[in-house]
Amino acid sequence: ATPSTDSAPLRSLYFGGGTPSLTPPALLAGVIEAVRERYGLAPSAEVTLEMDPGTFDKARLHAYLDAGVTRVSVGVQSFDGALLEKAGRSHTLPEAEEAIDMLLSAHAQQNSPLRSVSLDLIGGLPHQTRATWQASLQTAAGLGVHHVSVYDLQVEQRTAFGKWYEPGVHPLPEEAEAANMYRDASRILGGSGFEHYEVSNYARGSQHKSAHNLAYWRNEAFLGFGLGATSHLASVRLARPRKMAEYASFVDELEDKGFESAQKTHGLLEEGRDAMTTRLMLALRTREGVAQNELAKAFGPELAAAAAAACRDAAEELPSEWIAKRPTEGDHDGLFALTDPDGLLFSNEAISTVFARLDERLDARV
């Protein structure tokens, strides 16, 4: 009921969403083995498991590593114990410190399968100040982890946070303060040897960049399983239902009619102009940016030329401190990329401007 991939064996497998570290190691091992048998896993495949502090001990961690996990992302969120409690996190600061110590110790063992340890931090939490945020960043930078993901708190309606807090209203930091926290992350982590390679992500060397997320940002094919998971295969994006009853019906349809039928019923075909705007949006979240020749290979010279012209237009319109590289007319290898930190900080506005200029140029040809 599932499709073959464009290029087996798989280069990345990612267990995320919810709390995967509550999964019994034997069950996780079974899933990894099933994926290996069905699709194949490259010998160097990155197998990532999201883990929350307080949900595992050394025995459980090593069982996960024996099952095939090679990369762990631990959800610390803050190194301020009082802030963790106020934010309603289920773990304590000592549990977070113990989790990181276990992971780094496992990584340090000879011939360890654990290649990278990553941690998540969240800026803009209730009662968070720049001083406490900077302290968390400095702690993260000095621990010896290989990767740090820095996210801004998103307050969603119908969640506990959505009921308790209103964005921009005390005790949440104001927008300008949150922007400065983003700049703090770039300065502190960058000054400690981390490369800011994507809007929210920092790696201590290219070997520790998230191969899985890089595939997303390069708009490569991927398969997603579970509630709300999305897939991107053969230019079709497919979102699985978010609610259990609808998901069960979806699985029944997969088993009855196959994946191709589900794609036709539930999928969204992205090609031409739509596919290129997705590629632009994803690429401009990264420090690499986008090159006209890459677009030409994927979407043809006409669309690529229009995109390059739109990037040139946007570069003239946007603040110069946002622009790291700008394409010049006639330079088909020219790059358009945003600066660290301000260009990436305001990447949504920059991308929207590129899209608006692209629409103008393409619509004028109709």
Report the sheet-strand fraction: 15-25%
* Outline type: globular
Helices and strands, in order, run as: EHEHEHHEHEHHEEHEEHHEHEHHEEHH
Order of adjacent strands in the largest pleated sheet = 1-2-3-4-5-7-6
The helix/strand class is alpha/beta
Largest sheet: 7 strands, mixed
Please state the CA-atom Rg, rounded to the nearest Å: 22 Å
Q: Which regions have little confidence, pLDDT < 50, spanning 5+ residues?
A: none
Number of helices: 15
Mean pLDDT over the full residue set: 90
Q: Can you count the beta strands? A: 13
> Which range best describes the helical content: under 10%, 10-25%, 25-40%, 40-55%, 55-70% or over 70%?
40-55%
Distance between the termini: 41 Å
Brief digest:
Helix content is 46%, strand content 18%. By secondary structure, it is of the alpha/beta class.
